[in-house]
Amino acid sequence: MDPMREKSIELLNGVVADELAAIHQYLYFHFHCEDQGYDLLAGLFMKTSLDEMHHVEVAAERILFLGGDVEMKPAFPVEKITDVREMLVKARKMEEESVAEYNEWANIATAEKDAATRKIFEDLVADEERHYDQYDQEIDNLDRFGEKYLALQSIERSKSMSGGD
Ligand SMILES: [Fe+2]
Ligand SMILES: [Fe+2]
Hints:
Layout: H1 3-35, H2 39-65, H3 84-111, H4 115-162
One fe (ii) ion (FE2) binds near residues 22, 48, 98, 128 and 131.
């Protein structure tokens, strides 16, 4: 295999590893938010997890196109965080790291003269920046409204379950 493809395949498998870890981590957060009655955050973690699954798909398709194979190894194990604020801080940090990493890999792809792989990294950066922003916004809400913000989510659930207004 020519060296350009080998490097791209390695980086794209780095994406797969990061994204698989994120999917697992966000699903874990989803379960615990739902268990604690925080439906809005449970929904956000589920939706983000699905976005990350799509990222795996994009990277995997490119890996196969380049003649490699997809290494289905999560980059890190699930961290068992159940405090909502700690979840959001962890999630924001994961997105921040992905943005930095994918930006760097986009530059490596350019150096390797692989524009199509670069484009994938660029699109991922845009998505991860959006995820970062969403988690940052939630942390901001918590800082501003504290327990009231979380309590409101529980009240909304009770209302919907009792069929009230
Ligand atoms: Fe992602
Ligand atoms: Fe993300």
